[in-house]
Amino acid sequence: MSKKKRKHYFREKLPTRPCPITIAGIEDIDYKDVELLKMFITDNGKIIPRRISGLSARSQKKVTRAIKQARNAALLSFSAGYIVQDEIQE
Amino acid sequence: MKKRNTYEIVMVVDANLTDEESQAVLGKHKEIISNAGGEIKFESPWGRRRLGYEINKMKHGIYYLLWAEGDGDTIEEMERQFGYDDKVIKFFVVIVDDLGKAHSDFELLKAEPKKTANLVSDKMGA
User: Fold this and answer.
1) The pairing of beta strand B88-95 with beta strand B39-55
2) Which of B69, B76, B18 is nearest to B48 (CA)?
3) A76 to chain B, minimum CA–CA distance in Å?
């Protein structure tokens, strides 16, 4: 059997979108800013990849670092999504 | 002489304690830091929060943030003492460049927790 000729699929080029964090003018991403970080994690607590989140490489690195720090400080979960804070404060 | 660094210390105290008790725990550890050659510049409470995951079967914790200057030995001693104390359920230390800026940034974040998130979600569109 001859080698199957591989078909070339051309992925349709999607319109490029600017990185939302860069155009919002945020320079430093703080690990305590859980409201921002929850936008970049799934319901299972995973970090959303760059091809889906649409962040620039620089922003994605900062977000990843912040999420990992937040997990260590028990601000975010390793295995569940964002933890909703109780409404009634003590 | 060891290199002195500026640290941000997150300290999570057992939420079953009363206000006075948790303040006492905070005071005790502040004293440990100053005795170990550290210097606390700012401190800020973050209140009772739900934890990202259970720690020792506790779902809540009282967060305190400290911004301190010190060297590696200070942090080593502090972490050792945190380990001995059952009332401190979690701690987390990072090096920051500017203590004053870190403190004021945190106060802003505490006042408006959703500010940056709203800025970004506006730009994300859908």
Assistant:
1) unpaired
2) B18
3) 4
Instruction: Give me the residue from A20, A73, A77 closest to B10, CB to CB.
Output: A73
Q: Which domains does chain A have, with CATH numbers?
A: 25-72 (4.10.640.10)
Q: What is the dihedral of CA B75, B76, B82, B83, to 10 degrees?
A: 160
In chain A, residues with a C-beta closer than 8 Å to the C-beta of B106 are 30, 32
Q: What is the pLDDT of residues B33-65, one digit of tens each?
A: 999 888 999 999 998 888 989 899 998 999 999
The CATH classification of domain B5-124, taken from the options 3.40.50.720, 1.20.1070.10, 3.30.1330.10, 3.30.70.60: 3.30.70.60
Verify whether the Cβ–Cβ distance B123 to A23 is below 8 Å.
yes
pTM: 0.84
ipTM comes to: 0.86
Q: For chain B, what are the domain ranges?
A: 5-124
Closest among B102, B111, B9, B16 to B55, alpha carbons compared? B16
Cβ-nearest to B92 among A73, A78, A83: A73
